[in-house]
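Title: Comparing notes on inverse folding

I've been comparing how different people in this forum approach sequence design from structure. To keep things fair, I'm posting one structure and asking everyone to reply with a full sequence. Here's the target:
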């Protein structure tokens, strides 16, 4: 259980940095997908599922630069640790 909390904290740190870069670049398409799920995540499993889904959609669309794509993939994996459903990230 502690590992899952650490994974969520690490994912949150990655996402804060990623969202800041997306804001700087004014990447509204990616922000529009991620930000609503990120801001409404109050910690429930349903909220985390919604955030993971949004992250997966952006990752699959390959809208981001390579480094950001890798950061997004790491965040997805970290959010998936301890989740009931497995998360597979390829790329």
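Reply #1:
Here's my take.
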């Amino acid at each position: 259980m502690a590992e899952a909390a650490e994974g969520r904290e690490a994912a949150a740190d990655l996402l804060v940095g990623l969202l800041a870069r997306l804001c700087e670049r004014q990447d509204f398409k990616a922000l529009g997908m991620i930000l609503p799920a990120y801001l409404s995540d109050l910690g429930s499993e349903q909220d985390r599922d919604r955030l993971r889904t949004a992250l997966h959609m952006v990752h699959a669309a390959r809208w981001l630069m390579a480094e950001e794509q890798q950061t997004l993939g790491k965040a997805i994996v970290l959010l998936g640790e301890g989740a009931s459903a497995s998360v597979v990230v390829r790329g």
